[in-house]
Design goal:
Blueprint: H1 3-6, H2 18-28, E1 36-40, H3 47-59, H4 69-72, H5 79-85, E2 92-96, H6 103-112, E3 123-128, H7 135-146, E4 152-158, H8 166-170, E5 173-176, H9 182-195, H10 202-211, H11 216-228, H12 234-241, H13 246-257, H14 261-273, H15 278-296, H16 311-327, H17 336-346
Parallel strand pairs: 1-4, 1-5, 2-3, 3-4
Helix pairs in contact: 3-5, 6-7, 9-10, 9-11, 10-11, 10-12, 13-14, 13-15, 14-17, 15-16, 16-17
Length: 353
């Protein structure tokens, strides 16, 4: 079992996003549970985990009376909770809309939903990547959402809510799962590391968090790989991530700001020979430039040493490297877009990109 599945949250209190914990607690303790939820947000932020927790709360055989978090949490010990956790509960159906996207599948759902639950209070339908449904399937689903049986609860999950019909969204209670902050991911990784009895420095966890693009799942996968390869030191985790030390990024930008083309190209060649992913390196440069930009406006503290760089140069470099990042998709030689940009910047008076 992968670590992400092993340490998947089983209670509301274990969900890593504070905003979702608070909203779900308020809704589920109110006594007025909506018949349809919409969980929208990036991958790996806990949408499916939250959906399963709701299914357990609604069907828990030992649920206590009361409206606080302790009272509404599932016991995770009764037959219903255990069967949902193990994915074998007949009344909790998880549907992947990417592979069940047609009108026939939704029609079949509409017929079966009329039947009473086999052993639970509620039938819970978790439809993942719901935006993948066809227009005909959406229309069929809409009719079910408009007049659902009292025993049916829908939880729709999507990474692209903008592709859903407004009529579908309007019939759901929407929860937006944002990308996790670095601090939230670090806390999640600490929980996993503690459970696995793995000793890891906080600096390494921060590196993993920074590379996971706000995804708890991706961060846990990186930690699992690093632990398996005994690479839980700062230098070793850089190799796992295919990244470069921030110091090299700062050194590269110093050459760029001083318009030293030869030195910039030589450093790039050194990084490339070490197997550093040039696209990832360009992304790191943009992160550093972004921090400098915010520091110039007093929004964050920066220790990069670039505080005196002209704001127009920062803006132009952000535009330039953003263009370079987009060009990697079609580049035959991986490092070529950045090499061209280096020469373009250093040998001309760059005004705009």
């Amino acid at each position: 079992m992968t670590l992400y599945r092993k340490y998947r949250p089983q209670k509301i209190a274990e969900l890593d996003l504070l905003s979702i914990r608070e909203r779900l607690t308020n809704v589920l303790s109110s006594g007025r549970v909506p018949h349809a939820f919409l969980f929208a947000g990036p991958k790996g932020t806990g949408k499916t985990s939250a959906a399963r927790i709701i299914a357990k709360i609604l069907n828990c055989e030992k649920r206590k009376s009361g409206s606080d978090l302790v009272a509404i949490e599932p016991c995770n010990k009764c037959d219903s909770c255990i069967s949902i956790t193990e994915g074998r509960d007949m009344d909790v159906l998880e549907i992947d809309a990417a592979s069940n996207r047609g009108i026939e599948e939704i029609r079949d759902l509409r017929e079966k939903i009329k039947l009473a639950p086999t052993s639970s209070r509620f039938k819970v339908y978790i439809i993942d990547e719901v935006h993948m449904l066809t227009t005909e399937a959406f229309n069929a689903l809409l009719k079910t959402l408009e007049e659902p049986p009292a025993h049916a609860i829908f939880i729709l999950a999507t990474t692209e809510a903008d592709k859903l019909l407004p009529t579908i969204i309007s019939r759901c209670s929407r929860f937006d799962f944002r990308k996790a902050t670095k601090e939230e991911i670090v806390q999640s990784l600490k929980r996993v590391a503690k459970g696995e009895k793995v000793s890891v420095d906080n600096k390494v966890l921060e590196m993993i968090a920074s590379s996971s693009d706000g995804s708890f799942r991706d961060a846990t996968k990186i930690l699992e790989q690093a632990a398996a390869e005994d690479a839980l030191t700062y230098e070793k985790i850089l190799n796992i991530l295919g990244e470069v030390d921030v110091r090299s990024g700062n050194k590269f930008l110093q050459f760029i700001f001083e318009k030293k083309a030869k030195e910039s190209l030589e450093l790039l060649e050194q990084l490339n020979s070490k197997g550093i992913n040039i696209k990832t390196f360009t992304g790191k440069l943009l992160v550093i430039l972004h921090d400098i930009l915010l520091a110039k406006h007093g929004l964050v503290n920066s220790e990069s040493g670039f505080e005196k760089i002209d704001i127009s140069d920062i803006n132009n470099l952000i535009k330039l490297f953003s263009r370079v990042y987009a060009e990697y998709k079609t580049a035959i030689i991986p490092e070529l877009p950045l090499e061209i940009a280096i020469v373009e910047w250093c040998e001309s008076k760059v005004k705009s990109f």
